[in-house]
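Let us work through a complete example step by step.
Step 1: write down the sequence.
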Amino acid sequence: MRNHVSRWEDLPPGDWLANDEHGVHWFRADDGSHWYSVEDGYRLWEEENTQSIDNSKTQNRNKGINYEDFYDDYDSDDYDDDDTYVSGSFRRKKSLLPAILMLIIIGVVGASGYFFYDYITKEVPEPALYGQIYWDYSDNGFDVQEVNGLQFQQDEVTRFYPNLSEMCDEDPQIDESGQFCIREVEALNVWDRGDYYEACEPELITCVHLYIQEKGMTIYDPEWENCADIVGSIEKPELVADDEGRLNPTDEWMEQFYQIKSEIKYERPTVCDESFDV
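Step 2: predict the structure and record it as tokens.
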């Protein structure tokens, strides 16, 4: 005898009984067997002790069969939190996908919140170029070769020129040695780009790339595609007056300067391979 049919039309001759409190459809066949609805059709009810059901219990539609016998065959695990019956053959399949998605969302939100909090609270290290004076010896724009220094700080850039230089202001601030005037220039916005720092003048909207090396720095101008090297691992020069009264570094300092500058040039980034020097 079949114990399952997929359509109600395939049920044996009989009568419909009242639905139970859980919405299950019940059917009594003329041979005394009972059928109940499941997701994929109707299944034959078989008592655990194989006793025949008292036919008198099916004569009254309102009384129905003894449902206590039916529910006694299942433990409390067949009910969910709101007492909805979800047992065995007609249990509504519950997908784990919503729970998994919720865990993923909670994890992502929690991780992003942690990293955001870490980002706004952690101390951001100062760029490696801050606090060091970098020196160059080049044309200052007046057809005169002279030494000058460049120091980066937070929100300010300071240039050092020999005292009495054309680049000094009329009323310059003189440094502690008395040999250099100090000139404040437009501040640069500096960003760490990994291999280099990008320094931009806010008003002119021009940017250069600063490649920090062990003994100095290579400056690359992407607009003009040129490179320049400045020396950082050297003491502030002592200046001596020439025949015209101009102040220049000593020969010993200049020799050390050019030696270090050649080492920096040897370690230039590849971006300078196709550029020219300034």
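Step 3: interpret the result. The first helix runs from residue 67 to 72.
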